Amino acid sequence: MSWFSNAMSSTLGRKVIMALTGLFLITFLIVHLSGNFQLLLDDGGKAFNIYAKFMTTNPIIKTTSYLLYTTFIVHIVWAIILTVQNKAARPVGYASEDNASTWSSRNMGILGTIIFIFLVIHLRSFWYEMHWGGIGTKTYDGEVYKDLYSVVNASFSELWYVVLYTVAMVGLMFHLYHGFKSAFQTLGLNHPKYNGLIKGVGYGLAIIIPALFAAIPIIMFLK
């Protein structure tokens, strides 16, 4: 067995994969959030529909999306494996060196499950509809675009979906709070000189990203 296979079959190797994929997914969340802000523009969904078409047709974005799908799958599978191992041994986070046990670190499996359930519903409602659903179209400047905005707007007019979205973002907040800091620790990038900064950035991301994501459906529901 090669050194790579040995590393990936070890607990530490799997934690490194979790850390790297987690940091990549945080980057995706920031990009995705910036695109979602276009839902709040008072233009009937034009900017968002143009953005959605670009994200699903641009060759570079499409290639990156395959990496994203793979990252999601690897992150979820590795999370399940680590959760099972932790249950059999003792609860640990991304890095066994962290002896401080927080609620979020002890419940990463539950938080991940909440996010996963939401993700399945979210992808079915929007991603699947954008690619294969029979949604309507809008024409801007002579070019036809799928009207994904109307699909999103209809979903965010349903109270149950807004509540589900908000609850999932609370789960994401705790997930990010523990995951960001632990990822740096697993990768050996923690240092007494920078730990305060890492912790502060982690707090900021854990609060700001989910809060802004949750604000969008709430604002659209209240319009």
Describe the structure.
The chain is mainly alpha-helical and 223 residues long. It has one domain: 3 helical TM bundles of succinate and fumarate reductases. It contains 9 helices and 2 strands. Strand 1 (137-140) and strand 2 form a beta hairpin. The longest helix has 30 residues, at 59-88.
SSE topology:
Blueprint: H1 3-9, H2 11-36, H3 46-57, H4 59-88, H5 103-106, H6 108-132, E1 137-140, E2 143-146, H7 148-155, H8 159-186, H9 195-222
Antiparallel strand pairs: 1-2
Helix pairs in contact: 1-2, 2-4, 2-8, 2-9, 4-6, 6-7, 6-8, 8-9
Q: Regarding CATH, which class? A: Mainly Alpha
Q: Helix amount, in percent?
A: over 70%
The count of DSSP E runs of length 2 or more, i.e. the number of strands, is: 2
- CATH homologous superfamily assignment: Fumarate reductase/succinate dehydrogenase, transmembrane subunit
Class inferred from helices and paired strands: mainly alpha
Q: Which spans of ≥5 residues are poorly predicted at pLDDT below 50?
A: 91-100
Amino-to-carboxy terminus distance? 59 Å
Radius of gyration, rounded? 19 Å
Q: What is CATH's topology name?
A: 3 helical TM bundles of succinate and fumarate reductases
Strand order of the largest sheet: 1-2
CATH architecture: Up-down Bundle
What's the pLDDT, averaged over the residues? Answer: 83
The helix-strand sequence is: HHHHHHEEHHH
Count of discrete structural domains: 1
Relative strand content: under 5%
Can you summarize the main beta sheet?
2 strands, antiparallel
The gross shape turns out to be elongated
